[in-house]
Structures are given as structure tokens and as C-alpha cells.
Amino acid sequence: MIENLPSCPKCSCEYTYEMNALVVCPECGHEWVPAESGVAGGDAAAGPVVKDSVGNVLHDGDTVVVVKALKVKGSPSGIKAGTKVRNIRLVDGVAGHDIDCKIDGFGAMQLKSSVVKKA
Fold it and tell me: Which residue range(s) make up the domain with 113?
């Protein structure tokens, strides 16, 4: 556990806290990985590079656009192509789902990077 957590890079709030592998700002809601601030072993912490459907490298906090219509179990309507998804989080998901996000009207879900494009 990190005892001296860094201040928020967006709003400079000093009351940040840890949530799993992320550091979170309670004032603006910004989330980031503390390894990005220069902790030793950065190459091992970087992990695999996640790219969108056109080859752009994705990072935590990016905004993406869904490029094809997706069916959602239990929903009469799916996610339409062109839906904007803000503040994504890259994860090691199941069956190739490597983006964790919240979509308005659907809630929290995981997406494959092959069906999104960086906005």
C-alpha cells in the first residue's frame, strides 16, 4: 500500500485514495495508475499495448466511439454505432474484453477494443 499518495494531476487535490490498482481523486473523479509517476519496474507494469479497431493505442481515461452496433443480453435494443464512451479503463478481461466502462442507458460493461475507435 502506498502511504504517500500523489496529488491529483487534474485538480491538485491532496485527498486521493487507492482503489485496486488505481489512485482516485474524490473531488474531480479522475483515476490514474500510480506506476505512471515513475515507480521502478515501469516496463513490467506497462503490460500489453491495447489498440482500437484502426490501430490507435488506448490508455486509461480515453474517450472512444463504438464503430458497430452491439447486441446486449437482456436488452431489447443494443448499443448503436457511434455511441460515445467516456473514461474507459483497460483491464485483462474474459474472452478478449479488454475495456471496462460505463455506457449511459446500459450501465457498467466490458467491451472489446476491436469494436471501438479512439475519439
Answer: 64-118
Q: Are strands 64-66 and 116-118 parallel, antiparallel or unpaired?
A: antiparallel
Question: Is residue 55, in this structure, part of any structural domain at all?
Answer: no
Domain co-membership, 26 together with 71:
no
Which residues contact residue 105 at a Cβ distance below 8 angstroms, ignoring those fewer than 6 apart? Answer: none
pTM over 0.70: no
Q: Which long-range contacts (CB under 8 A, 24 or more apart) does 95-103 make?
A: 98/50, 99/50, 99/58, 99/64, 103/79
Domain count, the chain: 2
Looking at residues 1-13, what average pLDDT do you find?
75
Mean pLDDT, rounded, for 86-105? 90
| Proportion of the chain above pLDDT 90, given as a percent | 43
